[in-house]
Amino acid sequence: MSILLLLSTSASHATTDNFPDKPVHLIVGFGAGGGTDVVARAIAKQLSLELGQSVVVENRPGAGGSIGASYVARAKPDGYTLLFTSASSVTISPAINPKLDYTQSDFTPVAQVTTAPLLLAVNKDLGIRSVSDLIARTKENPGALNFASSGLGSGPHLAGVYFQQEADVDLTHVPYKSGAASVTSVLAGDTQVTFATTPTSLGLIRSGELVGLAVTTREATALVPELEGMAQAGLPGYEIFQWNGVFAPANTPQDVVEKLFTAIESAMMNEEVQKNIQSAGTDVKVSASPAAFSEFLQENNKFWRDLVKSSGAIIN
Length: 316
What we know:
InterPro entries: BUG, Bug_dom1
Number of strands: 10
Family: Belongs to the UPF0065 (bug) family.
Protein name: Tripartite tricarboxylate transporter substrate binding protein
C-alpha cells in the first residue's frame, strides 16, 4: 500500500512539474467581440509564449456568462481549462439564480488582470447629450427607453439597475448574449441605452456612432478623458466598475495555480499587451498573488450581492 501511495504521489508531482504539456483552454462565457472576449484575446498570444503552449480562447456564451462558468466548474482541475471572466458569472449570476449548478466556491482564483469603468452611451439619434438629459427623458416617459446588456446578471445589466435606483428612473432591460450584440442593438435603434464595456463601445463613441454620456466611476478617468464621471454628471452616489480575472476549477494543484499566475503576471507586463488593452479604455491591474485576488473578491462580492438583493432580480 505504501509503495502504491508513493508511486501515485510521484506521478502526480511529475504531472504538475511538466505543466503545461498540452494546450490550455481559456473559456469566455460571452460572445466573440464582447469586452471580456476582446481582453482575453489581447492576452492569449503572449500568455502562450509565457507558458510554452498554445492558449486557445473558446467562447461559450449565454445566461450572463454562466454557461461558460458552469463548463469550467465541472472541468478536470488540472489547469488546462480556465475561466476568463468578470464578476458577472462568478458572483452576480449565482446571486441572481441560486439554482445554478455552481457557486464561486467551485473555482480557484488565479489572477485579476484588468479594471475599467463601463460607459453609459445612447443611440446618436435620440437627442440625448448628457446624463441629465437621459434622466429627464426617462422621467417624462417611464419605461419607454430600453437599455441593452450582455445578459441577465451581467455587470452591464446590474449597472443599469443601479442607475435606475440612484436616478429614480425606469428603463426596460433587454438582455443579449454578448456585449457586442447589445451595443449593435443600440446602434440600430432596437434599444436606446447601454452600460457597455470599453472595448465594445469606446471606438464607436469616438467615431460618433454612439453618444457617450459618462463613465460609470464616480470621477472621470484618464482612460476615457472625453467623458465625465458620475459625480460631475450629477449622480455623486453612483460608482461601478468592471474587472476581468482568471479562474481555475476548485482543487487545482497549488503549484499549477502559481505557475499560471506567474505566466499571467509576465504576460500582462508586455508592452504590446498593455498598449492593446489600454487603447480600448481598460487599465491593466494584476493582483499581487492568487491570495490577494481572493481577498479582493470577498470585498467585491458584497457590493454585487447587495446590489442584486436590492434590485429584486433574484430568480426563485
